[in-house]
L-idonate 5-dehydrogenase (Pseudonocardia hierapolitana), 341 residues
Amino acid sequence: MRAVVVHAAGDVRIDERPDPRPGPGEVLLAMEWGGICGSDIAYFRHGATGTAVLRHPLVLGHEVAGRVAAIGPGVDGVAEGDAATVHPATLVGDPRLPDRIAGRTNLHPCVRYFGSAALDPHTDGGFSDYRVVRADQIRLLPDGVSTEHGALAEPLGVALHAVHRAGDVRGRTVLVNGAGPIGSLVVAAAKHRGAAAVVASDVAAPALAVAAAMGADTTIDLTESALPEDVEVVIEASGAAAAIGAVLRATARGGTLVQVGNLPGSAVSAVLGDLVTREITWVGSYRFVDEIDDALHAMRDGLDVSPVITHRYPLDQAEKALNTAADRSTGSSKVLLNLAG
């Protein structure tokens, strides 16, 4: 089978690998669509993402969907031909968590994740013709949800988790700073969860156009205007450390700021005084727990992720797809790989 494999910074190849077969408790997926994430870009550009450093060749991709091609012994509840996406996380070791974080499996101290070099050996992702997964990782797509849209269940789950971390947003105004793919999906997630109004801000006009199409009531071009004042709920999705001061200032006294944009793992300079004097609750948001299920339900119920998809490439053009996704001048938001093409 073909697989999109990063060998080192700047070195991504379409490698041939043996066709996999499912074992007991496993399912073989024939992959159809994969969404390119910032971590895929980081492995390609830098050979690392955060503290995860590439030590061996790695199959990229954790935003994927396809169809069941074969079923291993002992698997019930799925049939060949079923459309499905995948929960990409696997807990390693004792699954129990301290009472204070019970159920928050995204905070388990050791997690294998599709397309991740965090552990050695690495965990291959799903940018390939086929991928064997445990049956419990399979999430069947509801009627009316295509495999193309199913590949976005993972990032939409990230967005829904961020909104969940903000608390009850019903009837409230939400500011989303950063209108990249996650930010635009956060816009849609906030509207889906009942926000009265959502404001999206960014420095790129194409990104703001996507956010508007995803449901933003107002957009702010930060090259021309400043952030609004006194917003009760703010979700920071840019991951730009230089933006933190202005985002804290935009957050109302006693308000909540959710950090879903990945901040650098090294020292940065940021203006933080308002965190104290405005008594802002600043919380992190990391991946998701089971919100991938909520994402599928939301799409079933009408949440349309189409506007965030701006580019599609066949698998054998993976390098071009990665470069497009990394270059904001292309106007890209979510770039998809047609894994069956």
Summary: The first helix runs from residue 38 to 46. The mean pLDDT is 97.
